Amino acid sequence: MPKVSSKAISRYAMDAVKLIGMLIHNARVEKGMTIAELAERAGVSRGLVQRTEAGEAGTAIGSVFELAALVGVSLFELDDKGIARHVRAERDKVSLLPQSVRKSSAGVSDDF
Q: What is the second-level CATH architecture of the domain 11-95?
């Protein structure tokens, strides 16, 4: 039985989860794959595939991406090389950013 989450999820996030689930379901059916076949190829349980296709928000994002890739659902408007290029660009950007963000505990003194 799936764990019931008490986290609040925005309407946007819920709609996105439902959409990706429907896209995976439709692509799987169009390819003539059963839930069991997709689960075996992805190395996950049939229940996880069912929960993903039902639009449940508790599914691990890596599993969702793997299921989408196996049935040919493109999650971005980029091909493999375009995604790799963006990953490199973001990695370069991360190298320029601070390693952590901390809130300043010192108050601003505006006494003159």
A: Orthogonal Bundle (1.10)
